[in-house]
Amino acid sequence: MKTHEARGLHLLAECEECASLPDLAELEPLLRSAATAGGATVVGVLTHQFGQQDGVAGVALLAESHLSIHTWPEFRYAAVDVFLCGAACDPAAALQVLTRSLRAGRVQSRLIVRERGRQPAV
Question: Which whole-number Å values give the CA distances from 109 to 24, 40, 80, in the listed order?
Fold first, then answer.
């Protein structure tokens, strides 16, 4: 008999028709704010600008896992990844902070429940 125990919740989102994509200066505070809203503890943040008129990417390393965003201004698009572990964490709350800031016209998301399978010894 196999039992499962959740390791964490991994929320992936496609944010389209974004009216407001962050620039490099706005990215770290945005990631920190989203992590806090999700009940996570930020360990560090790394950001990158791809060019003067190009998008940005950022990742927040969390005690509970990670949160990341990658933007394409020319398509008004952002890809978001929120992976949180722990009963008190809420990846949907973190995503809500991000999508509100992006002023996304359309958001498609999917939730993956990361599980640990336990199988009896053979």
Answer: 24, 20, 9
DSSP alpha helices (H): ranges in 38-110?
Answer: 91-102
Across 89-103, b (16+ Cβ under 10 Å) vs e yields: bbbebbbebbbebbe
Q: At what angle do helices 24-37 and 91-102 cross, to 10 degrees?
A: 150
2-44 pLDDT, tens digit each? 444 568 999 999 999 999 999 999 999 999 999 999 999 999 9
Q: How far from chain centre, in Å, is Cα 59? A: 8
> What is the pTM (predicted TM-score) of this model?
0.87
Cα–Cα distance list, 92 to 2, 75, 82, 86, 87 (Å)? 29, 24, 8, 14, 13
Q: Does the domain formed by 9-116 have CATH 3.30.420.40? A: no
Structure tokens at 104: 């996304």
Instruction: Give catalytic residues, as residue numbers.
Output: 65, 70, 85
